[in-house]
Amino acid sequence: MTTRLETALTRRLGLEAPIIQAPIGGLASPELASAVANAGGLGMLAQTWSEPDELRAAIRETRDLTDRPFGVNLILEWPQDERVAICLEEGVRIVSFFWGDPGPHLDAIHRAGAIALMTIGSAAEARRVVDQGVDIVVAQGWEAGGHVWGEVATLPLVPAVVDAVAPVPVVAAGGIADGRGVAAVLSLGAAGARLGTRFVLAAETHAHPRYRELMLAADETTPVHSSLFDIGWPNAPHRTLRNSTFRAWELAGRPPSGKRPGEGEVIATDDDGSSINRYTSSSPRADVSGDIEAMSLWAGQSVGLVREIRPAADIVRQLVEEAVAIFRALDDFGPAAASPRMPVRVVTAD
Questions:
Q1: What's the pLDDT at 299?
Q2: Dihedral-angle region of residue 124 (phi above 0 means left; psi in -120 to 50 means alpha; beta otherwise)
Q3: Which residues of the chain have pLDDT under 70?
Q4: What is the rounded distance in angstroms from the CA atom of residue 223 to the CA atom of residue 218?
Q5: Within its chain, how far is the Cα of 63 from the centroid?
Q6: Which residues in 28-43 are b (16+ Cβ under 10 Å) and which e?
Q7: What are phi and psi of 187, to 5 degrees?
Q8: Confidence at residue 341, expressed as pLDDT on a 0 to 100 scale
Q9: Separation between Cα atoms, residue 131 and residue 181, nearest integer Å
Q10: CA atoms within 13 A on the CB side of 15
């Protein structure tokens, strides 16, 4: 007997669980995306900077590992026409966008029978992209790790966006790491939850062991919001763990780019031999060597809730089980899940 959470998101995307693995940049992998997909959630590939052959290979490798839906995320700060075309040619039917205008890509996506997601930071922006034709919006709260688009916290953002774009499905992102968070955002009217920090600590990610150690040791106050790691992606606010690079910059009075401590210093080396300078926007992958602690250690405020590395499938199952337990407990006090503002149904099947 299995129990699942059914929402507008699961019905629209053909999922078993209203859980989306955030793209998490270079830390994502076909192994991670397929593991999440096979567990019933939506796995995502981050392919913003991939060369065409790399993108095709990642899609095909993921498809070899799962027959379930998965998506590709592209950041619109850079031209993405060719990558969108490749995704559609390769049969990807869920394309996710961030940080820009999705409008020019929507006709091609819909002609291919695909679905477009867009991450937004306000109700006004949600209305705008839905009017353009976006099918599902991801409301990213300020608590999120990695690059953060808006300035509103998840708790007030999600219901505002839900009210603004109903009946378009809304996915909540930012500050969610366990089933309590999933239940909370579903009760706010979201149709799903997107988690990044939690999935960085999935067994299948490409995260460096030292990065994992620092995340496991962090609490909710360790992540800081800044635009510090701007080499490669300037003027893009983000949330990272407070580390030696951040502390040195802070002690220096938070000087602007070009006047920061250690500017131009090589702190690590990529697997291809290329140098990684201090303040570079670069994911601390397992194949990087050097001073990992000094790199951009992406993490959201939910990092204090994560205390173990687990397989991605176990994470998806645990999230659903915890959320189901909460909804069942609420039902003891009345038909909680029947409210139109909490459009989730607990389904039990043999």
A1: 98
A2: alpha
A3: 1, 332-343, 350
A4: 8
A5: 20
A6: bbbbbbbbbbbbbbbb
A7: -70, -20
A8: 53
A9: 29
A10: 30
Residues 281 and 263: their CA atoms lie apart, in Å, by 13
Q: How far apart are the first and last CA of the chain?
A: 4
Residue 1: its pLDDT value, please? 55
Q: How far is it, in rounded angstroms, from Cα 196 to Cα 303?
A: 10
Residue type at 37 in one-letter notation: A
Check: CB of residue 76 under 8 Å from CB of residue 97: yes
The tokens for 141 are 């709260």
Q: Tally Cβ neighbours within 10 Å of residue 6.
A: 17
pLDDT given for residue 338 in this prediction? 45
The two three-digit tokens of residue 192, written as one number: 């799903």
Distance separating alpha carbons of residues 307 and 228, to the nearest angstrom: 27
- Helix (H) / strand (E) containing 130: helix 123-132
Find out if CATH 3.40.50.620 is the number for domain 2-200+310-349.
no
Residues 69 and 56 sit within 8 Å (Cβ to Cβ): no
Look at residue 120 in the predicted model and tell me its pLDDT. Answer: 98
CA 305 to each of CA 24, 179, 198, 288: distance values in angstroms, whole numbers, following the listed order: 18, 11, 9, 26
187, 170 contact by CB (below 8 A)? no
Q: Rounded to whole angstroms, how far apart are CA atoms 187 and 23?
A: 24
Q: Please, which residues have CB within 8 angstroms of residue 215's CB and are 6 or more apart in sequence? A: 197, 200, 201, 241, 297, 299, 303, 306
Q: How many CA atoms lie within 13 A of 11 on its CB side?
A: 10
Buried b (16+ CB within 10 A) or exposed e, 222-258: bbbbeebbbbebeebebbbbbbebbeebeeeeeeeee
In terms of DSSP H, where are the helices of 148-299?
A: 154-165, 179-187, 197-200, 209-217, 244-251
Instruction: Spell out the domain ranges in the chain.
Output: 2-200+310-349, 209-302
Helices (H) and strands (E) in the chain, counts: 12, 16
In angstroms, the CA 101 to CA 105 distance is 9
State the amino acid at position 260 in one-letter form.
R
